[in-house]
Amino acid sequence: MEPLRELTKNHVLGNPVRLGIMLYLLPRGRVLFRDLLKVLEVTPGNLDSHLKALEKAEYIEIYKVFADRPRTAVRITERGVKETGGYLRTLKEALSLIPPKD
Description:
Elements: H1 2-9, H2 16-28, E1 30-32, H3 33-40, H4 44-56, E2 60-66, E3 70-76, H5 78-96
Antiparallel strand pairs: 1-3, 2-3
């Protein structure tokens, strides 16, 4: 049951919205705030709260980009890639402990 214990230690990625953010960022590297809103179907305030938690853990960086108007963008950090990968490997290991149904 060690993998289950390990999963409960990561309070940042244990939240489904934050895990969803990281899974969306992982293959892309960076995304716009509005794109995350569309994909996750959460309110702007809710998303902002989750992004701040991820930024505090140093899993992401939040910054402004200037095109036709200022926009908020999110970039995954090296730590974010490492921690998300480790979390997913531990989750996979925990799932392997579940016996198959006949």
